[in-house]
Amino acid sequence: MTTLAEPPAMPAPTAPSAPARPVAPPDQAEPLAVATPAELAAHPIAEERFRLYIWQLPVRLTHWLTAGCIVVLSLTGLYIADPFLIPPGGAVMTTIRQVHMLAAYALLGSGLLRVIWLLRGNRFARWSAFFPTTRVQLTEIFRQAAFYAFIRKEIPRILGHNQLAASAYLILWSLLLLTAITGFALDGLLGSEPGATGFGWLIGVVGPQLVRLVHHLSMWGILAISLFHVYSCLLVDHLEKNGLLSSIFSGFKYVSQEEIVEARDGGAELLEAIE
Question: Which domains, and CATH codes, for the chain?
């Protein structure tokens, strides 16, 4: 069966061509085009962000002091447990023990200052930011965990510590306290004070081997939490783009009006304070 071919289309009448635009010489710059209102609407200006003071100086100071103490205590503790250098006279081991104990005292000082700031700090540093006292904070733990596990796409709106991180910090400080107690007890085996008098009873109750085991396991738990802390900070900083990593140095985050108002630890009163 054959089909009839369509007749050839007639060419449409063409409008008279506009006069050619003169080409500017290469050494002459083109005039700058002015965007129309429609073009500006198609490309809106980036959302305005506010410089909000989150981490007070004692929080930042104790953060970095604790981090440094964890590094020093871990390295010196590994050497004390398994010395790979045994020079004559044991001077290196003595020095390592002294550095280890100095770092322990610095950690205790950092912890004491942070405990004080749980009572005197702003809303992001106070005890209520760490202990889940409301139903919203309890559910936030699971919502944040689902986000880190790539189950949820929406990250809870938080200006300070999210509740999962806050709970991890409580576990971290508990492990640090446990490490300090067992560490002083082990130091007391050599007759050093205050370990011999203050914590010698612990050795008598459970024995030195169990104390040493708990001391080492606590250290590995601390390192595991610290590693996850670094990972989560990198991830959230990449997604939120609000200066999370730099805020632990400067104290400031750069957040939008929506984040300030809708965050669990935010509110319109914060926006009014910075406007």
Answer: 49-274 (1.20.950.20)
